[in-house]
Design goal:
The complex is a heterodimer. Chain A is an all-beta fold. Chain A is built from no helices and eleven strands. The termini of chain B are far apart. Classes of the chains: A mainly beta, B mainly beta.
Chain lengths: 121, 107
């Protein structure tokens, strides 16, 4: 059974840093791209970042480029999102998501339960 | 960046109704589109990928169609558990943008 379990959310002051973790199980972690998607309170979904299976390729939304960094630890089957220089507008529930099983097609078939990050003084 | 525009933004319907939600891309994305359902306090759940492929375990009353710039999600006969918010997402290029969502409410 595929499982994605996020941790590390919480309250942080503007300008501060936070690291989210997404521990995975039930699939061959190094084979699949992993992504982060966020949702501000009462708002829609926003793609944030993607790491290729190997971790060699990373992609970011313009809104977080230069401030956030995605990484993965293959020995722990875990993907991370390091968030620096946090702003009030980064307040959101952050979800990790796994790329789908069918080779050659791109979609997110499993999602974590989400972690709330609140940026406020 | 490719923009996705969903319509309508909200919709009221009754159990048993047939409902169609539209997603229009600002440029051609072939069939690189997925649809998700989200209920309050829960993560999104995949319904459709590759524009028209039904995810395993998803009821057959859900279907997707379209290619290029115009896509639709159809629910053939609404069930009580279908009242939720629906999102499309494109996978043609980064950033992997979402539509703004369509909230489906009970009439």
């Amino acid at each position: 059974e595929v499982q994605l379990v996020e941790s590390g959310g919480g309250l942080v002051q503007p300008g501060g840093s936070l690291r989210l973790s997404c521990a995975t199980s039930g699939f061959t972690f190094r084979t699949y791209d992993m992504s982060w998607v966020r949702q501000a309170p009462g708002k829609g979904l926003e793609w944030v970042s993607t790491s290729s299976g190997s971790g060699d390729n990373t992609y970011y939304a313009d809104s977080v480029k230069g401030r956030f960094a995605i990484s993965r630890d293959i020995s722990k089957d875990t993907v991370y999102l390091q968030m620096n220089s946090l702003r009030a507008e980064d307040t959101a529930v952050y979800y990790c998501a796994k790329r789908g099983m069918i080779r050659g097609l791109d979609y997110y078939d499993y999602w974590g339960q989400g972690k709330l990050v609140t940026v406020s003084s | 960046a490719i923009q996705l525009t969903q319509s309508p933004s909200s919709l009221s319907a009754s159990v048993g109704d047939r409902v169609t939600i539209t997603c229009r891309a600002s440029q051609g994305i072939n069939s690189a589109l997925a649809w998700y359902q989200q209920k309050p306090g829960k993560p999104p759940q995949l319904l459709i990928f590759d524009a028209s492929s039904l995810e395993s375990g998803v009821p057959s009353r859900f279907s997707g169609s379209g290619s290029g710039t115009d896509f639709t999600l159809t629910i053939s006969s609404l069930q009580p558990e279908d009242f939720a918010t629906y999102y499309c997402q494109q996978f043609k290029s980064y950033p992997k943008t979402f539509g703004q969502g369509t909230r489906l409410e009970i009439k």
